[in-house]
Structures are given as structure tokens and as C-alpha cells.
Amino acid sequence: TMLLSPEEVAELTGFCYPSKQTAWLRENGFIHEIGGDGKPKLLRSYVYSRLGGVVERPSPEPKLHLR
């Protein structure tokens, strides 16, 4: 999925409570949003790239060259 699961956010931050998770994310400079449920939301691709992974990008579609 596009977003980290609540369990993955807890694993990343080391905290179970959303308020503690949000504080940790803020202190460590992670860009996140707070959902309507009060829990932090993080894009999986952002976290992966932040931790040194390489995010695979889809190859661009071929371009048609007319003469």
C-alpha cells in the first residue's frame, strides 16, 4: 500500500501512542500528515528513500517520433 501501516509506524518510531509517534517524527524531520483518526500518516516511498533505499520509478512511456 501507499502508506505505512500503524504497526510499521510504531516500528519506525519505537512508540505505540500516536502522540509519541508524532513527536518522534517531528523531532527527526520526517514529513507526515495527521489523519482524521489522529494517527500519523507516512508515504512508504518517502520513508524508504529517507532510510537510504532506492525507490523504483516506472520507466517513462516510449515517445513516438514522427518525421
Provide tags for this entry:
3 helices, single chain, 37% helix, 67 residues
Any chance you could write out the topology, listing elements then pairs?
Layout (H helix, E strand, L loop, with lengths): L5 H8 L4 H10 L5 E2 L5 E2 L2 H7 L17
Antiparallel strand pairs: 1-2
Determine Rg (CA atoms, Å).
Answer: 17 Å
Structural class: mainly alpha
Outline the low-pLDDT stretches: none
Name the helicity range: 25-40%
How many β-strand stretches?
Answer: 2
Count of individual helical segments? 3
Broad shape: elongated
Distance between the termini: 42 Å
Strand order across the largest sheet: 1-2
SSE order:
HHEEH
SS strand fraction: 5-15%
Mean pLDDT: 90
* Main beta sheet strand tally, sense and closure: 2 strands, antiparallel
Overview of the structural elements:
It is built from three helices and two strands, in the order ααββα. The protein is mainly alpha-helical. A hairpin with a 5-residue loop joins β1 and β2.
Summarize the structure.
The chain is mainly alpha-helical. The protein has three helices and two strands. It has a two-stranded antiparallel ribbon with strand order 1-2.
